[in-house]
Amino acid sequence: MKKTQHKIINADASNMDAIPDESVNLIVTSPPYPMIEMWDGVFSEQSERVKTALGNKDAQGMFAGMHAVLDKVWDECDRVLANNGFACINIGDATRTIDGKFQLFSNHSRIINYFASKGYSVLPDIIWRKKSNSPTKFMGSGMLPAGAYVTYEHEYILIFRKGNKRRFSNSERRLRQESAYFWEERNVWFSDLWELIGVAQEIKKKSVRERSAAYPLELAYRLINMYSIKGDMVLDPFLGTGTTTLASIAAERNSIGIELDPSLLEVSRERILKGKDELNNRINKRIDDHLGFIASLSGEKLARCYDANFHSFKVKTRQEKNMIIRSVRDIHRFAKGHYLCEYSDIE
Ligand SMILES: C[S@@+](CC[C@H](N)C(=O)[O-])C[C@H]1O[C@@H](n2cnc3c(N)ncnc32)[C@H](O)[C@@H]1O
Asked: How far is the CA of 204 from the centre of ligand 1 (A)?
């Protein structure tokens, strides 16, 4: 029976001593966003420099200080990420008025500069568009020029590669084939615009819900399927409510999550232990969507498809023939912060 392991740790990710050097294949994460007011407290608790800059209304000092906090975590990410591994970072830029001056703080370009300076290859990124229909979303001088501001309704998913292209060993080659995604998934996942809606959070405690800033399961699930193979180790140094752990379970990868706030870690625990149905729904949807896609093909196109070797559906390309999609059979805790996931067998 296939199994994966998942660890969640309550710690400050600027020190990830529990994780050996170069032992992680993929990082999928979303940090607290510098210059977004809801994160001011989190940053000033971690930095006197930020606290002072906030007090002095020193916008550039705040921006620099907050990114210095993140840099310490990125330094640790760099240490634990394997050569040829990927880092996928969801980040939004911030707009804010400080001392009467409205401006944009470009978090994404600051983070790109950090990874480029460390020698990473900066790969094409994804715009995650989160459209709001609110009529009050526009800021500034209304219908009178020239003091209105463009409304920001997107975030970025930055993608970096450490070192050169990954080479796969013989056993990894088999797992890579198993980990293939569908042709039609490729066409959507590898586009540079994702229009995902944020999921309604099911966190009961209001104070915790307000600070969670979770991304949708779909976002992490796609990235993990795109940039790792089964059995790989996925890390989220800013785990929040545990979305990356859940997506790793669904994608049959191992994972480690680090989170500073113990109350959010409690949310992760609950989500992991109750996650089986939600994850199987996503896994089943993947297959249902594929069956729908195959059913939509004309006779001529269908005739050019292949039989999958381990499933009873057809696939569009030869590369998809050996893919295996398992459902989650059981998730249980086997030690403090350690979870074991078992998967259904494929005949
Ligand atoms: C944007 S949220 C992550 C949300 C997460 N992607 C999810 O789906 O729930 C950022 C998280 O980073 C945590 N955090 C902030 N500084 C940290 C640090 N130094 N080490 C570990 N976690 C930290 C915050 O408590 C917060 O939960």
From this structure: 18
Distance 162 CA to ligand 1 centre (A): 23
* Homologous superfamily, domain 3-291+322-343: Vaccinia Virus protein VP39 (3.40.50.150)
- The structural domains of the chain, with segments of one domain joined by +, span 3-291+322-343
Residue 147: burial class (beta carbons within 10 Å; 0-12, 13-18, 19+): exposed
Atom of ligand 1 nearest to the CA of 73: 19
pLDDT by residue (tens digit) across 61-89?
999 999 999 999 999 999 999 999 999 99
- Alpha-carbon dihedral sign for residues 308, 313, 317, 323: negative
Of 142, 147, 271, 139, the C-alpha closest to 201 is: 271
Contact 67, 10 (CB under 8 A): no
Residue type, 312: S
Give residue 201's pLDDT band: very low, low, confident or very high (50, 70, 90): very low
Whole-angstrom Cα Rg for the chain: 21
Question: Are the C-beta atoms of 154 and 194 separated by less than 8 Å?
Answer: no
Q: Please provide residue 282's backbone torsions phi and psi, each rounded to the nearest 5 degrees.
A: -65, -40
CB of 71 within 6 A of ligand 1: the answer is no
pLDDT (0 to 100) of residue 213: 87
Q: From CA 153, how far away is CA 50, in angstroms rounded?
A: 27
Partners of residue 235 on adjacent β-strands: 27, 256
